[in-house]
Design a protein that fits this description.
three-stranded antiparallel β-sheet, 30% strand, Ribosomal Protein L22, Chain A, 128 residues, 5 helices, two-stranded antiparallel sheet, alpha+beta
Length: 128
């Protein structure tokens, strides 16, 4: 059974402006350590990655129905890629504990970007 669905849209240009203004501080605020390590060097690719990651985290927070409230925080949610390159969520220990308490057995993530926009859809499922 579906427990939650969230969608978010982020302008890539907005992330590019914020990244130029704040430098590495934006990445440290928005991304988990594993995501920071994988950031591209070019400004355009970096902004795209930041926009997709932020959209994914917003979509997840909406699917949870909590917004960003402890332990649903930017640092507790990471976007990774599986062996085939498909996006997936990874969670910090505090958030993983909450997901178990809420009986969230599976999470799904879809990402896309075009026309200067990044969009993410997050779906939470129970074991049923």
């Amino acid at each position: 059974m579906i427990l939650g669905v969230g969608v978010d849209l982020v302008a890539v240009a907005r992330m590019e402006r914020l990244d130029a203004k704040w430098g590495g501080r934006l990445a440290k605020r928005v991304l988990a350590a594993s995501e920071i390590a994988a950031l591209p060097r070019s400004a355009a690719a970096r902004a795209r990655r930041l926009a997709l990651a932020f959209a994914a985290k917003e979509a997840f927070a909406k699917a949870m129905g909590t917004g960003f409230a402890h332990p649903v925080t930017l640092g507790q949610v990471a976007v990774e890629r599986d062996e085939a390159g498909a996006p997936r969520f990874a969670f910090g220990p505090e958030l993983a504990k909450l997901l178990r308490r809420r009986k969230v057995a599976r999470t799904h993530l879809s990402l896309s970007d075009d026309g200067g926009q990044a969009v993410a859809v997050a779906v939470l499922e129970d074991a049923g």
